[in-house]
Amino acid sequence: MKKKLIIANWKLNGNKVSILNFLNLLNKHDIEEKCKIIMSFPVIYLYLAKTIIYKKNIFLGAQNIDVNLSGPFTGEISVNMLKDIGIDYVILGHSERRKYHKESDTLIAKKFELVKKANLIPILCVGENKEEKKLGQTQEVCARQLNSVISICGPQIFNDTIIAYEPIWAIGSGETATPSSVQKIHRFIKEYIKKYGFVNSDKISVQYGGSVDENNVAQLLYEADIDGVLVGGASLNYNKFKKIIDIVNAF
Ligand code: 13P
């Protein structure tokens, strides 16, 4: 059985105390072998987090990297810097970065390639907005976002990577996509990558994100192609997050 992933995206939240408290509790919590947790804190706290975590199935992820490796790029962080402090995962192409930082499909694809070359694991976010959903363009949007990675990085780049399907309208809205509709698009994503990226579906993990909480996670994970969840708001509250872990543990 493929490991079920729970990725927590803290976005622009948290401080030293809240992160230490959270990790001290998480370290003590039972996490089954089949379950893997990736905590994605703001980058400034990742090194501190790294020194605190001692459970072997808790990993750390960054929320972004720069498209350059070094040089005169004030304020940026490179993938090699993340590697230097022992970070394993990088979220790329989150819709908030696409929207507020105008990140294009091409820029995201270049970052994807850098992460793979550094032997870290990219978590590529894809997904449609409300208007595109209304127009029935979900598959088309996801295919376009996957295509840019395939065309810049070449087929097979998706080996051992994570895709997060995050419909934009479901993020932070309390409105989750129905498990059956998520299943359908996850199947589509896996088939698409298999066909155009020449990757065996077992070599990619497809997560769902968008208003996931302790009340809806079980229904989502019953679906065959939902390999885990990417949790925003509910991951900030330890009790809610613990309940999500317990539900995943029980699968
Ligand atoms: P919410 O769980 O708050 O909807 O956020 C989802 C998300 O954007 C995770 O990356």
Strand order of the largest sheet: 1-2-3-4-5-6-7-8
Q: What Rg, in angstroms, do the CA atoms define?
A: 17 Å
- Number of helical stretches of at least 4 residues: 10
Q: What is the annotated CATH architecture?
A: Alpha-Beta Barrel
- The CATH class name reads Alpha Beta
Q: Work out the strand percent.
A: 15-25%
Structural class designation: alpha/beta
The distinct bound ligands, ions and cofactors come out as: 1,3-dihydroxyacetonephosphate
- The domain tally reads 1
The ordered string of helix (H) and strand (E) elements is: EHEHEHEHHEHHEHEHEH
The CATH homology group name = Aldolase class I
Quick recap:
The chain has 251 residues and is α/β, with parallel strands linked by helices.
List the helices and strands and how they pair.
Elements: E1 4-9, H1 16-28, E2 35-40, H2 46-52, E3 58-62, H3 79-84, E4 89-92, H4 95-100, H5 105-117, E5 121-126, H6 130-134, H7 138-153, E6 161-165, H8 179-197, E7 204-209, H9 217-221, E8 228-231, H10 238-249
Bound molecules: 1,3-dihydroxyacetonephosphate.
Fold and architecture overview:
There is one protein chain. This protein is of the alpha/beta class and 251 residues long. It has one domain (4-249): TIM Barrel (Alpha-Beta Barrel). The chain has helices spanning 16-28, 46-52, 79-84, 95-100, 105-117, 130-134, 138-153, 179-197, 217-221, 238-249; strands at residues 4-9, 35-40, 58-62, 89-92, 121-126, 161-165, 204-209, 228-231. It has an 8-stranded parallel barrel, surrounded by 5 helices. Helix 5 (105-117) packs across helix 7 (138-153) and helix 7 (138-153) packs parallel to helix 8. The N and C termini lie close together (11 Å). 1,3-dihydroxyacetonephosphate (13P) binds at residues 9, 94, 166, 171-172, 209-212, 230-234.
